[in-house]
Predict the structure of Nuclear transport factor 2 family protein.
Amino acid sequence: MTDLAERLDRLEARNAVAELIYTYARHIRRDEPDQVSALFLPDGTFEIRDGHPDQPEFTVREFHRSAQEVHDYMAPAKGRRHPLPLIRNLIVEIDGDTAMANSVMDAKIYGTPHTTMGEYRDVCQRVDGRWYFKARLFTIYKDASAV
């Protein structure tokens, strides 16, 4: 690839990964949890922790080993109280067909006075021109959430 083509590919990839992350948040906000698993590779993982992302001490709340497990976890939540996530401070690093992303999420829990805040660390993979989550790690800030 030429330098210009590589730069353009990196910019388009960065935008596509950001769209993937924002699409996930939109599905959660719109109470469409059954749509979320399509954003993961079939063997994509999703882990939810309590703690702090930069500290070695944490507790695993949930660990899902595949897109099907993500679906089985999320789909039954339709119609229930759910977060209204706002994604902030998104940083995306591209390396060919792999991307690393980091973002902060804070959310009010719809229908409650509760809020939650945490950090996503994502590994994304491009397959046939489309980006998916390969691994999604969400750490809920232990002292900044009421859920």
The longest strand covers residues 83-95.
